[in-house]
Every structure is written in structure tokens, then in C-alpha cells.
Amino acid sequence: MRMRRTAAAIVIAAAVTVSAAGTGVAYAASPATGKAPAAAKKPASTKPTKAPTKAPTKAPATKAPAKKAPAKKKVKVAFSANGTVTAADAAKGTITVKVTSGTKDVKGKSVTIAVPSSLQIKLNGKRVALSALGAGQKVQITGTRIDAAYTAAKLVATGRKTVKPAPSPSVTPTPAPSETVTPAPEQTEAPEAPEAPEAPEAPEATETPEPAESA
Description:
Blueprint: H1 2-33, E1 77-89, E2 94-102, E3 110-114, E4 121-123, E5 126-128, E6 138-146, E7 149-158
Parallel strand pairs: 3-7, 4-7
Antiparallel strand pairs: 1-2, 1-6, 2-3, 4-5, 6-7
């Protein structure tokens, strides 16, 4: 038994010595070549492929409502108009004037001006209603204008309004019934009787020769 154990120990020691010598030879050869021993390559790791994910669709951006520009303040502008009345409407409370002189915005134009019901209107020095004014009268008006809307603040009128004569109704004469005259039948003349044929003239008598005298 001891012999077997000793032999086994010798074999193990020899194997260890041989393996150590081989390792030393390998390390001694690598400096001569100048190359480090190639390290064993690791197997490439396979990564699991991920399924493509869709990017979330963005909702369309809603535009903010545009801010409205602040409304411009309406400014009152004073005006004056002198001219001739062309029409006056008491129901609507307006007067239309053909302006001959005044401010630039009305001069030379035909302007319709609002007349407030509380305005004192003077005609030939007397206070009157708007219905007393009419075409043909001269007026002097002052007031204010907002854009194209004119409003009277003072109204003085002179003269008389021209009253158009009412058209007289035209009388259409009724035509008298026409008498139908029946023409008398024309008298037809009787045909003339045919002329009688003239009798033929009798033949002239022929003279008979006288007998010759015998000697």
C-alpha cells in the first residue's frame, strides 16, 4: 500500500512539474513575438429586439381667439349749413337742405339733417313746428355731426314754402255715339233702247234708152 501511494504521489508531482514548465515556455515565447496572447472572445450577447413603438399623435393646437381692436370713440364735429329747403318730413323728423354755404363737409351738397322734437324752430321770427317748413324756404342751421349723421341744434327759416298746385283731374271726353248712315242704293239707269236699223236706200232708177229714129 505504501508503494502505491508513493508511486501515485510521484506521478502527480511529475504532472504538476510538466504543466508548470509548459506555462513558463508560453510566457517566455510571448515577449519574443511582441504580441500578447489573444484573449478568448466572448460570445456576442443577443439582445431581445423591441417592438417599434408609435409616437403619440399630437392633437391640433387650437388658436387663441384674436383680440378685437377696441372700438374707436365717435367724435362730435360742429357744422353749419345755409341753403334752401328741398324737403321736410315731420313724421321722420328730418329736413333736407341744398347747402350753398357752410362748413366744408356740407358745402355744395344736399344734406339730410335730423331735427329733434325739442328743438325750437323759428320761421320769420315766430316759433313753428317742423311741419310748417317746406321746399323753397331759406334756412340757417347749426349743429353737430357724428360720422355722416347730422343733428340740428339751431334752425332759423325765412320765406314761404312753395305750394305745388294740385293737379286738376283730367276729364276725358266721352265720345258721342256715331250714327251709322246706311247709304241709299244707287239708281241704275235703264239701258238705252237699241237704235232701229236704217232702211236701205232704194236703188236709183236707171234711165231707159230712147229708141233710135228710123230714117
